[in-house]
Amino acid sequence: MKILVVGSVALDSIETPFGKVEDVLGGSATHFACSASFFSDVALVGVVGSDFPKDHIDFLNGLNVDTTGLEIADGLTFRWKGYYEYDLNHAHTLETQLNVFEDFKPKLPVKLRNPDILFLANIDPDLQLEVVDQVDGAKFVVCDTMNYWIENKKSSLDEVIKKVDLCLMNDSEAREYCDTHSLLESSRSMLSMGPKAVIYKKGEHGALMFSDSTHFSAPAYPLEDISDPTGAGDSFAGGFLGYLSKTEDFSEQNIRKAIIYGSVMASYNVEGFGTERLVRLTHEEIENRFNEFKAIAHF
Ligand code: AMP
Predict the structure, then answer these.
(1) DSSP letters along 25-81, please?
(2) Distance between Cα 295 and ligand 1 center (Å)
(3) Which residue minimizes the CA distance to atom 5 of ligand 1?
(4) Global pTM?
């Protein structure tokens, strides 16, 4: 098993200027796993309630996502409800129902305890810490988070960031977490805590990576038909880590390429609601858009 992800598996209700859906399959771990599955083996740890449609589990298994670490607990599945205006970089949360996540204590099956790559997707940082403690010898540990946890569990999040190799955040979340408008300053501050690199996701403005010695700026794909930006960050992470897992090369050059694969997956994800677009995505489309990115960024 190559990549292990812990995060939310959700039923999302979303409204954008282009449509509206209710209780569709979502969650940080779901979007990540769907995207990563195009590149590598991925296993998921999380919890859903007894109301979670079995079809969704079949769908994940159909993508070859290992769901043996997905617990089905008594109670209701985590739900997120939000909307976007024309500024699609900004999600407005209307409701977060933690439900079964409130009492969730992750217990990793033995076969999931030695992944090459561990992705701590957006979820309660205390749960991220519990998973880190059960994993042995992962080569690359990466975390993500969101404003909800920065505002409600800052000190637990500090502990997570101290334990990871790379930290992924939206630029606005990094500014909030580090209490500065400057992304250079937030990078310095996060790198001093332990990670070797930080990547800022900037939605329709691309992505930035900072390490002690380098800075890389990736463009975003100029999209005409956006439906729903939900899950773009997690699909980015899935493409990014999926490609690193597939190539087993963590050099800076390859990390740059992986950021472009992440951007490709995010750009496809936003073309449909929920997981709709990735379901019919092909490897050929991924390679075509990767090559378009090359052309866009050529100097
Ligand atoms: P993103 O990639 O940042 O757009 O993440 C979108 C996913 O995050 C949605 O499918 C939501 O179900 C999930 N989500 C929203 N709020 C939270 C939260 N507080 N904790 C964990 N997951 C969340």
Answers:
(1) EE-HHHHHHHHHTTTS-EEEEEEEETTS-HHHHHHHHHTTEEEEEEEEESSPPPEEE
(2) 32
(3) 231
(4) 0.97
